[in-house]
Amino acid sequence: LNNEDVNSEDHFEKTDKNLIVKGVDRPLLGEYSCWTGNAKLSSTYLLQETEEGEDIDSLLTCHAKSYDCNFSCSWTNSRYAVVRLGIGPECSKGQRSCQWVSSSGQLENEGFQFELYHNLSPFAEESSMLEVTAEAIDNHFLLLRKTKLFYLRDIVVPDSPQIVSSEVVGQQLSVNIKPPSSWSTPYSFFSLEHEIEYVLRDDGRTERSLSSLIPKRISKLRVRCRDPLVLSPWSHWTPWKNVRNSCRCKKQKKSKLPSRCLEHCKKKMEERTKDAKRSQGL
Fold first, then answer.
1. Cβ(206)–Cβ(198) under 8 Å?
2. Which parts of the chain fold into alpha helices (H)?
3. What positions does the domain Fibronectin type-III occupy (predicted)?
4. Region 20-40: what's the mean pLDDT?
5. For residues 149 and 91, what is the distance between their CA atoms, to the nearest angstrom?
């Protein structure tokens, strides 16, 4: 038991190759192994299930980047040495048919990261909840089994979108935004709502807009997105992107200037001409 020879007759009974544990208590929990010389033949764990511990929502958090067939879960409590997850009623009932999933990596806070898969159709209305069961073993060989129920739509949080370009349209700036590469396709079916945050160049005020058309005179902008049908949480903001006036008026033929800059440069030249006349007293 836990690398120590089993000798006590008060708690154990040996019958041929079988070992019977009597009056199971915490000191008798752990790994039982069978040896011949220095060779380990087999082992099994004797655990005690407990209802102790925090609520499952504080232990296990799940999120999906889209409505595709995969999603991620994080186990954030470092008290437990081993954790595994399973999907479906077979796992919540502890049946042998459960397909358990081991951790795909360890978090910085000594928790665990999992990659899970489901068979829900992304194009059908979601009527059944996902059933994720966690089994965790702490350092005292106590087994914690808890089940978390949720709809896929409740854990969807898109990645940040992409700012493709911006173009001056009259007195406004039109921002071209592209969905994140991880988002479900086709985009015509899986629509996204975008919000733009921008800083005004004149007074430095920060404002937001749900329209792709924003004031022209801004110094920088950033964008985030969400699913408008289920009002999912917003994605993270993109990094700030500086916005510069792309219309540079130089001494060149008008035909070489972009059409959107002609009016801008014409007004600028008129202002310079007026300023020059004032300074000459004309």
1. yes
2. 56-59, 89-92, 259-279
3. 157-246
4. 88
5. 13
Bridge-based pairing state of the strands 142-150 and 48-50: parallel
Three-state secondary structure call for residue 253: coil
Q: One-letter amino acid identity for 2?
A: N
pLDDT at 117 over 70: yes
Q: How far apart are CA 141 and CA 35, in angstroms?
A: 21
The pLDDT mean for the chain works out to 87
**Local structure of residue 210 (DSSP, 8 states):** S
136-192 pLDDT, tens digit per residue, is 988 888 888 999 999 999 999 999 999 999 999 988 999 999 999 999 999 999 999
pLDDT in tens, 37-48: 899 998 888 998
Decide: pTM greater than 0.85. no
Q: Is 35:3 a contact under the CB 8 Å cutoff?
A: no
Measured in whole angstroms, how far is the alpha carbon of residue 154 from the centre of its chain?
Answer: 12
- Among 136, 144, 148, 137, smallest CA distance to 88 is for 148
Query: Residue 274 — φ and ψ, nearest 5°?
Result: -65, -45
Residue 135 identity: E
pLDDT band at 8 (very low <50, low <70, confident <90, very high): confident
- Owner of token pair 């595709």: 68
Asked if residue 192 lies in contact with residue 179, where contact means CB atoms within 8 angstroms, the answer is yes
Secondary structure, 3-state, 79-107: CEEEEEEEECHHHHCCCCCCCCEECCEEC
